[in-house]
Amino acid sequence: MKNIDSLIYPRWIIPIEPDYQVFENHVIAINNGIILDIIPVGFENKYNAKEKIVLSSHAMMPGFINAHTHTPMTLFRGMADDLKLMEWLQHHIWPSEKTWLSEEFCFDGARLAILEMLKSGTTCFNDNYFYLKSIGEACRQSQMRASLGVCALDFSTGYGNNFQEYLKKAEEIIEQFKCDELISVNIAPHAPYTVSDQSFSEVKKFAERYQLKIQIHLQESIEEVNESIRQFQMRPVKRLYELGVLSSHTQAVHMVHLTEEDFSIIQKSQTHIVHCPESNLKLASGFCQVQKCIEYGINVALGTDGAASNNDLDMLGEMKTAAILAKAVSQNSSALNAFEALKMATLNGAKAMGLSEKIGSLVNNKHADMIAIDLSYPNTQPVYHPISQIVYASHANQISDVWVKGKQVLKNHQCVFLDEQEIIEKANLWKTKILGESL
Amino acid sequence: MKNIDSLIYPRWIIPIEPDYQVFENHVIAINNGIILDIIPVGFENKYNAKEKIVLSSHAMMPGFINAHTHTPMTLFRGMADDLKLMEWLQHHIWPSEKTWLSEEFCFDGARLAILEMLKSGTTCFNDNYFYLKSIGEACRQSQMRASLGVCALDFSTGYGNNFQEYLKKAEEIIEQFKCDELISVNIAPHAPYTVSDQSFSEVKKFAERYQLKIQIHLQESIEEVNESIRQFQMRPVKRLYELGVLSSHTQAVHMVHLTEEDFSIIQKSQTHIVHCPESNLKLASGFCQVQKCIEYGINVALGTDGAASNNDLDMLGEMKTAAILAKAVSQNSSALNAFEALKMATLNGAKAMGLSEKIGSLVNNKHADMIAIDLSYPNTQPVYHPISQIVYASHANQISDVWVKGKQVLKNHQCVFLDEQEIIEKANLWKTKILGESL
């Protein structure tokens, strides 16, 4: 008999690999943070486990991977809604960021975001912001997995004055978190309209030198596309392709208003797309043609975007929106089916972030980043197909237990390493300061 | 000092009337199921209340009105998803309905739906189905408010053999519930493609005789529109207008693919629209141009549709989808703002159902159909604007307390009059039977 850490007995297991599989009457064996085995109940007596956990009305699956967010923006949640995009950015978001961003703000905002994400089943996120040291610190405190995207642009912010300075910050962040097994770093040139050709060339070399993934906001709006055509005589996708920035190491976020040429560039360059449907709807940016991306063989991951433009960080809600919206956009009610949506929110995110060797599915030897969803709630009863109930009918509060690399971070709906009350009090202090200043 | 039933002290009150109002430091006085007063804290000492309820992190608002659903279909939730519309209807939904519908099935399904709706803040719904006696019985048992829509069509079902028989059933239902103050009855000719001109004329007379509202599925898909043009040489909206069926007593459900002529017919006939965005997306039906409806001065209510095509009955989720989708569809990020979405989900529903004298807003002398939403959860922190947090970031589990006509039906997240465990066990028995039959 082999001594191991845990045996977990859920009602259903949805491993994501292989496709469409649902195991019943199976048990998951975990040791040292690694998935050792998924076997039929009755065959686990070869293991002697320190703990046995029975989850009799729950589905177990890999944790959600939120492939695009700006965690500190939770502190601006709901501050300014229902505005024209440029009014929102120029009169609300940018001035607020200019006034308030700091290491302390980003630490408090990231912790609020991580609290919300862990409680709704996200075990890994790709951030895209400033003051990443604090965001990484918030991850360490909460035992959350993340890739920290150092935002870089040709403008001055409180975090840096020019493109070189942002790259310098990225080097510091790489150094600071190089020994952290849950934290990786990526470089995030902001967008085609805030980064010059010269800077894109530098970022390409920088990413190669440090073997980093690149994440870019790309073709988020028709205005961006039109401006690129005016200034560079080509669409943003083509411009970045010619600059050599698009590859299998790049994540293009948003990607609305795509032409056939855009699709084929994304396909041949093996660029990943990060779809943020609720942000695209709320900001009236447009519709990403997800079904067509799938038909082109493009890997599409899912992200919530920041809380200032969504306004929650709930991957279950985002997944439902993605799945039903894709059907209307493609005029095909069998487009982006429930399993494909679930894979988009897990394994596809891991692939985009270069982490699919470790996470994104429940298979032997991967890290045990797992969530349990309790399907016994009225809104998910009765259960004909657990995958359908998860994607189309379940709510974030049904996430009961969450593990990151085998360590339980949410236990019966309560965060293990975060003090919920303190985090919310801090958020309220920030609100009071921000309102005081603007009154 | 006047003796009354309750004084309730929430953190915020959103009365819906007047528009955009948010009261702080106010108290609601309730007596005999009626809103007696909403006054600043400190002025309530003229009342001697049997109970005082303090809800220090909650927003109080009128209960949601789900203006279109098919409650018993909860028992088919997730049974068949991601299919082409006709395959879904002809090979799954219709055969299942033919085999399984009965008074018992509809009673159990309606109770599951009501349980889900009460727990997510819906205090009134407009049903549209068969076996309404049982659905009304489920409402009585749970103290839920509803309008029971007797579905009528030119086809035979287990409930009736011809149009006359459905009208006969409607007469029985009117008789059965005439003394129930929470239950009203409406007549629901199914759709333009299942009801003849002759039957529409009869339904018009029938509705006038009994002073009933009429609810119709109208222009749900482009196929329906094209078929109408082929068969009647006009679009469904025009055909029904010429038959005299469209008026301020009529609710047209879905209404995608509208032309300028359709808009102006709806406007001049004062027909109400019931928007079901998640169903329209999931079935790839298309997009209702909600912002344009508002500009035409049309009253737009909100519905979830049945659980077989959504798949939850969550008005908070539906409201968020409506608000963000309207922005993308109209290419205007200030379309259908948070307050307008909240009004759509409450007062506009009451107007459509002819109940706005009684419910839909928190004003003196209306019935106390009210909900409390706890905004202290991480996903709705910090609170700059409670209306924004409710519409864009809150989840159904934040509904803590619900009252229908002053009677508390949900207390600290628990249904007062329904046995949750028993209802879920019944739902599972039906699933077992249905799966057994089809295996």
Structure explained in plain terms:
2 copies of one chain form a homodimer. Chain A is α/β, with parallel strands linked by helices and 439 residues long. Chain A has 2 domains: 2-62 and 363-405, Urease, subunit C, domain 1, CATH 2.30.40.10; 64-352, TIM Barrel (Alpha-Beta Barrel), CATH 3.20.20.140. Helix content of chain A is 38%, strand content 24%. Chain A is built from 15 helices and 17 strands. In chain A, the strands form 3 sheets. In chain A, strands 1, 2, 3, 4, 5, 14, 15, 16 and 17 form a 9-stranded mixed sheet that branches. The first copy, chain A, has a 4-stranded parallel sheet with strand order 6-7-8-9. In chain A, strands 10-11-12-13 form a 4-stranded parallel sheet. In chain A, α8 (260-269) links the parallel β11 and β12 (272-275). Chain A starts with a strand and ends with a helix. The mean pLDDT of chain A is 97.
